[in-house]
Amino acid sequence: MSNSSSPLLEVKNLKKYFKTPKGMLHAVDDVSFTIDRGRTLGVVGESGCGKSTTGRAILRIVEPTEGEILFDGEDIRSLGKDQMRRMRTRMQIIFQDPFSSLNPRKTVSETIAEPLKLNGIITDKGKRMERVAEIMEIVGLAERLYNAYPHELDGGRRQRIGIARALALNPQFIVCDEPVSALDVSIQAQILNLMDELQEKMGLTYMFITHDLSVVHYFADDIAVMYLGRLIEKAPAKELFRNPVHPYTQALLSAIPVPSIHNQRKRILLKGEITSPVDPKPGCRFASRCPYASSRCHSEEPQLKEIAPGHFNACFLNE
Ligand SMILES: Nc1ncnc2c1ncn2[C@@H]1O[C@H](COP(=O)(O)OP(=O)(O)OP(=O)(O)O)[C@@H](O)[C@H]1O
């Protein structure tokens, strides 16, 4: 049952495996977390660690292999096609490169109107266009762009269209998949500010995927770190930056430049081969690159455990 004090999203033991010619690729392997209402979970990790697949599996854009996804108390894996279509109006996604998902033959207003039309939310064309004008104003797209085409716009404005499309259906939850990674730093800040304002105004809950930890430092409430399909550490953002416990998180953080020379962390360079995500061997997936790995790490998989309130870690070293 839904209850406003319960998390909006609960993901339990989520798995997504892909069959490949070499074997079963464990893209997401037994991942569990929750996101509270109106909060932002940042999901970070290197390319290929399973961030996007986790986001897509939650929305069932890719069908999960195993696990439970509770959205507002509802088990969304049990929903039929029509029920899932309705549920998708409450759960949306914003992509890194909105351009590739925008139809070049549709104007800005037609693009934003499309989800309203397809989902039969506003059937009257005049009313639909009024709503489009309202959303354009909310996301900071000038009225004069109403009849512009996506290729006439810069990356920041295109991403505003992506955000507008996601907002059109009045969702509660948005998976933001690297939404600012393709943008210049100054434009990144504008888009992050906009997303922050929208969250405040509309009470949105975000899952914010990025390979760039410095982006989520101030933007996310909590941060989850993934490594080769596994969630290896999760903590409130401030706590994670102040006290990273997992050796992989420590290495990731050491690569971020810090403005003050007094606070500079010593850069930890990872050596060793990256373990294959195809039919992974038993043991910790980070062991081959971990400076502290013991024989136990090569035979047994550490589980995520709460080591301090809200701080979870999957490493034998800090148990
Ligand atoms: N449809 C698919 N078929 C087969 N393998 C896939 C598919 N989608 C993703 N993968 C694989 O799953 C793993 C996780 O990919 P995913 O895109 O989720 O990672 P990511 O952390 O989001 O990386 P990136 O930032 O590069 O997108 C990768 O090894 C990827 O090659």
TrEMBL record:
Q: Which top-level group of life is the source organism from?
A: Bacteria
List the PROSITE patterns hit by this protein, alphabetically: ABC_TRANSPORTER_2 (PS50893)
Domain ABC transporter, by residue range, is: 9-253
Task: List the InterPro entries hit by this protein, alphabetically.
Answer: AAA+_ATPase, ABC_transp_ATP-bind, ABC_transporter-like_ATP-bd, Oligopep_ABC_C, P-loop_NTPase
- Entry keyword Cell wall biogenesis/degradation: no
Sample GO molecular function, one term: ATP binding
Q: Keywords, A to Z?
A: ATP-binding, Nucleotide-binding, Transport
Q: Which SMART domains match?
A: AAA (SM00382)
- Pfam families in the record: ABC_tran, oligo_HPY
The record's listing under NCBIfam families reads: oligo_HPY (TIGR01727)
Name the UniProt record assigns to this protein: ATP-binding cassette domain-containing protein
From what organism does this protein derive?
Answer: Enterocloster hominis
Its organism's taxonomic lineage begins at: Bacteria, Bacillati, Bacillota, Clostridia, Lachnospirales
